[in-house]
Structure prediction request, 149 residues.
Amino acid sequence: MRLAINGGIPAVPKGTLQNEFAAWYGNKHCLALTSGTAALHSAVVGCGLSAGDEVITPAYSWTSSASCIPHANCIPIFVDIEPVSCNIDPSRIEEAITTSTNAILAVHLHGIPCDMDAIADIARRSGGVSGFERSGNPETAERIEGRWR
Prediction:
């Protein structure tokens, strides 16, 4: 819209939003996409998974949290959720990991963050398992004591 109003001349340099978000989150890079679904597809494809790899994801989530996995020729492995937060239950992730598991897709639901410390620890201990997360509105999160909440 801004391009149309300004006669096709961008009001801000290309990449400004991405650069500002990256700096705000303390990251080197940020990729702005049109939807959470597009972000999930990009993340699954971009993390270097191979056909047939298993990706652990919550059994209760938005449809695209699971549908992005077979689009990358991978296999979704559903793990139950915690009854209070409705997020993936870290205590059940470890028992779902097999030799074919190569990623854990955590989804923060209803404004309640997953226990990413526990999930990252499980991924590290499992060796070679990537962990990534999907948050519906990360720009509304608050950083408290170095962690996003």
Q: What stands out?
A: The first helix runs from residue 2 to 5. The beta strands are 54-58, 75-79, 101-108, 130-135, 143-144, 147-148. The chain has two domains: 1-32, 35-148.
